[in-house]
């Protein structure tokens, strides 16, 4: 125990005197998570919080135009703009503004669109009435030469997902208007047939019998934790920063080998495992402190920059176990790199580049789900992805310890395997 | 009792074309001050590494105070030996006191007794005023002296030194050599390597000259000089046995 504590104390003193190492471990990650959260705030908000201006030209002035304007406005994602400088917007102006990149989208509702929908509904109702032996016929327009369509103009730079979301929303509005009008016509026809029933007592026809409701599947109290820039970037880049501990550890080990202090430690009676254990515990502790420092920045620092506050789930013990396990794996990786490589240059270059690659494929930069399938399969082998997966289970899905056990088992097993390889390499070297 | 017995020691490092040791044998009694001498590449550092258990011998036999250097006796041998490596095996970012306290803790010493011991040696080696200075900022001589202290904190019966006076000034060398004489007078054994043959001649009771991984000759400096009438000193004896060809 004395050897273990002495080693922790020694590592603490060495770290305190290594200003560059301290900056790498603590200051750089703070800058990194702040910059990444700020930069990625906009892309994360694309479909969640950002309100887009949408140019609307209503040449119809009927129910369809009103439904579309109201529907877009009520969705909370769009500012409907239908006039410029007190003048109603024209289709040509709207196209021009989108083409110039001033706006992302314009919608033009053609003249007579509502009339066309009403006529179509009447035609359906007449057909039904005829089959039921009813005489009353609703007016139907003569068939138009060309079918009418709501025209959409997108900024050429608009993302595919954005375009598809808008198209889906508009398609919903169109279907809704057409359904409403059809039901209205049916109701009208039924009233004509049963003229004794007062119109105000006639039951309304309701089409939507079953709706959708989003509920939290997490076991905890917290609901509606949305993956935003802070929820993704703060834990993700904290894990990345924790793995960067490979650089000070590998540097420290190679220096010990080069300056002979490793030889001295090995010449002293007692198990070298105590010394290695002290080193491991110290750096795991540094990783955990680093992780919680970043989380504090997420909770208290991010809101000061106008970003959302980090939510840490309901099971804080699970969060600690995850941070500790990531720390063990990161430290073991540092010990392995420090053992295998002979010069600081080799170790530092390999360590830094390998962590960047592991983080890129492990979903730190962008979520794993948006990557190609093959990359996803490889990415799931990255310890950084196991760590991030466990953190997401706790922070976003309100998971408890049992949810994260598979990831924790993977992280700790990986750490133990790396320590085993390091011990084998060291043993071979002395032979 | 012999301090060290080395019998027919062989060692070839992985990937090396030439063996480092080719049947090296020598022995010396407890309480002696012995110099292990040889040109560059003769096998001195390999011999010391095998004696301390840092490197495994290819074949042969090593005994330290009658204990075979094997896995079963390694810990006991480590307790009996103090090693001063050629490198300054200290943490340059830590002060002398912090370094010595750490290595003392690794030996199992702690608290006031350890601090008293450290301060005693710092005073003995003229480093008491530099106790709180980082070792990386020490002069070459100060580093060498601190390096020796770290090896004797556990009062070993056998002190093994690999070129302990390389690159130090006259004052530091004098202090180190005086310490070695005193340490030896207390009944402890000392094995040291050096290229400074004049120093070895003054200091050692016995010298072992090795070359190309084999022992060439062993004896007291005076006896060896006497055996070779044309030799004025140990350097002449050394050149007689190892030749004048430059070694790399």
TrEMBL record, chain A:
Subcellular location: Cell membrane
Keywords noted in UniProt: Cell membrane, Membrane, Transmembrane, Transmembrane helix
Pfam families documented for this protein: ABC2_membrane_3 (PF12698)
Entries under InterPro entries matching the protein: ABC-2_transporter_component, ABC2_TM
Recorded topology in the membrane: Multi-pass membrane protein
Domain ABC-2 type transporter transmembrane: start-end pairs: 21-424
Positions of transmembrane segments: 20-39, 234-254, 275-300, 320-341, 348-368, 408-425
Principal subcellular localisation of the protein: membrane
Superkingdom as given in the UniProt entry: Bacteria
Protein name: ABC-2 type transporter transmembrane domain-containing protein
Organism: Chitinophaga alhagiae
Lineage: Bacteria, Pseudomonadati, Bacteroidota, Chitinophagia, Chitinophagales
TrEMBL record, chain B:
InterPro entries tied to this protein: AAA+_ATPase, ABC_transporter-like_ATP-bd, ABC_transporter-like_CS, P-loop_NTPase
PANTHER family noted in UniProt: LINEARMYCIN RESISTANCE ATP-BINDING PROTEIN LNRL
ABC transporter domain boundaries: 4-237
One of the record's GO molecular function terms: ATP binding
SMART domains with a match to the protein in the record: AAA (SM00382)
Protein name: ABC transporter ATP-binding protein
A Pfam cross-reference name: ABC_tran
Keyword list, A-Z: ATP-binding, Nucleotide-binding
């Amino acid at each position: 125990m004395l050897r273990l504590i002495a080693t922790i104390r020694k590592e603490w003193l060495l770290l305190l005197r290594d200003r560059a190492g301290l900056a790498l471990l603590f200051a750089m990650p703070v800058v990194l998570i702040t910059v990444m959260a700020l930069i990625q705030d906009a892309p994360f908000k694309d479909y969640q919080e950002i309100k887009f201006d949408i140019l609307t030209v209503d040449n119809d002035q009927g129910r369809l135009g009103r439904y579309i304007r109201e529907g877009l406005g009520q969705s909370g994602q769009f500012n409907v703009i239908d006039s410029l400088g007190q003048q109603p917007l024209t289709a040509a102006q709207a196209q021009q503004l989108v083409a110039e990149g001033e706006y992302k989208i314009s919608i033009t509702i053609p003249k007579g669109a509502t009339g066309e929908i009403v006529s179509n509904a009447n035609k359906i109702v007449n057909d039904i009435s005829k089959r039921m032996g009813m005489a009353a016929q609703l007016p139907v327009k003569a068939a138009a030469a060309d079918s009418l369509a709501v025209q959409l103009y997108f900024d050429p730079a608009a993302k595919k997902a954005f375009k598809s979301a808008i198209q889906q929303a508009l398609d919903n509005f169109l279907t809704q208007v057409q359904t409403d009008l059809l039901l209205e016509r049916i109701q009208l026809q039924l009233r004509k047939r049963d003229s004794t029933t007062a119109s105000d007592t006639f039951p309304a026809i309701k089409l939507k019998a079953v709706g959708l409701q989003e509920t939290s599947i997490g076991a905890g109290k917290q609901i509606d934790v949305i993956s935003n820039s802070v929820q993704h970037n703060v834990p993700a880049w904290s894990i990345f920063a924790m793995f960067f501990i490979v650089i000070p550890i590998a540097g420290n080990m190679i220096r010990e080998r080069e300056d002979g202090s490793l030889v001295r430690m090995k010449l002293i009676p007692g198990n070298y495992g105590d010394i290695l254990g002290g080193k491991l515990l110290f750096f795991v502790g540094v990783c955990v402190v680093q992780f919680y420092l970043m989380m504090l920045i997420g909770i208290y620092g991010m809101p000061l920059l106008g970003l959302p506050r980090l939510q840490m789930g309901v099971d804080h013990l699970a969060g600690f176990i995850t941070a500790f396990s990531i720390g063990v794996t990161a430290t073991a990786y540092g010990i392995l790199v420090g053992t295998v490589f002979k010069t600081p240059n080799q170790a530092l270059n390999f360590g830094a580049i390998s962590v960047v690659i592991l983080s890129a494929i492990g979903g730190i930069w962008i979520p794993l789900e948006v990557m190609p399938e093959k990359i996803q399969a490889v990415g799931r082998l990255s310890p950084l992805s196991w760590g991030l997966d466990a953190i997401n289970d706790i922070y976003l899905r309100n998971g408890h310890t049992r949810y994260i056990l598979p990831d924790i088992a993977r992280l700790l097993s990986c750490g133990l395997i790396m320590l085993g390889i390091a011990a084998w390499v060291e043993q071979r070297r002395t032979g | 009792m012999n301090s060290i017995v080395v019998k027919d020691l062989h060692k070839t490092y992985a990937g090396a074309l030439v063996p480092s040791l080719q049947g090296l044998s020598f022995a010396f009694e407890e309480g002696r001050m012995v110099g292990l001498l040889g040109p560059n590449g003769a096998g001195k550092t390999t011999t010391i590494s095998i004696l301390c258990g840092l490197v495994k011998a290819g074949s042969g036999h090593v005994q330290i105070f009658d204990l075979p250097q094997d896995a079963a006796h390694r810990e006991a041998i480590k307790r009996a030996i103090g090693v001063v490596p050629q490198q300054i095996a200290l943490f340059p970012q830590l002060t002398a006191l912090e370094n010595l306290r750490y290595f003392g803790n690794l030996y199992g010493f702690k608290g006031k007794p350890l601090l008293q011991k450290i301060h005693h040696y710092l005073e003995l080696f003229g480093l008491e005023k530099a106790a709180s200075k980082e070792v990386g900022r020490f002069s070459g001589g100060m580093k060498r002296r601190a390096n020796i202290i770290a090896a004797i904190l556990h009062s070993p019966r056998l002190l093994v030194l690999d070129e302990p006076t390389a690159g130090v000034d006259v004052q530091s060398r004098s202090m180190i050599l005086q310490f070695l004489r005193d340490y030896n007078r207390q009944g402890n054994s000392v094995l040291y390597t050096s290229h400074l043959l004049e120093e070895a001649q003054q200091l050692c009771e016995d010298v072992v000259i090795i070359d190309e991984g084999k022992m060439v000759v062993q004896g007291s400096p005076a006896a060896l000089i006497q055996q070779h009438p044309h030799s004025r000193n140990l350097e002449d004896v050394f050149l007689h046995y190892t030749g004048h060809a430059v070694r790399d």
